[in-house]
Design goal:
With 122 residues, the chain is of the alpha/beta class. Helices cover 29% and strands 26% of the residues. One of its GO terms (molecular function) is nucleic acid binding.
Length: 122
């Protein structure tokens, strides 16, 4: 956005990120988001809430289909999480994504829009 737009646009909504409940085992709750582009590359970031282990996956596209393919590969290595936390990005709110999670029995928690800190870990 141009400088005058940046100076006059409203602040994003205020949301209290709160504190996530502690998890008792690895991979029980993972937080996911897309990061980038960095030098033209976008990554899927997956963080295990228990160990804080980070998985990064280079994403050729950011479609729901590509996110699902990538998560299947990562789940094959680490197992299925009980819960996934994501923002309201279209990849994570599509019917295809919800069906994918439901078929695997994974609970999906959506965080506040335009408030990345609410998907963060302490």
């Amino acid at each position: 956005a141009c400088q005058s737009c940046q100076a006059t646009r409203p602040d994003p909504p205020v949301a209290n990120p709160g504190r996530w409940e502690d998890t008792r085992s690895p991979w029980s709750r993972v937080h996911i988001d897309l990061a980038g582009p960095f030098h033209g590359k976008t990554f899927l970031v997956i963080v295990d809430s228990y160990s804080k282990w980070v998985e990064l996956a280079l994403m050729p596209t950011t479609t729901t289909e590509r996110v699902v393919i990538t998560l299947k590969r990562i789940f094959a290595m680490h197992g299925l999480p009980d819960t996934i936390v994501s923002n309201n990005g279209p990849q994570f709110t599509s019917g295809e994504f919800e069906v994918f999670l439901a078929n695997l029995g994974i609970r999906h928690i959506l965080t506040a829009p335009l408030h990345p800190a609410s998907n963060g870990l302490t």
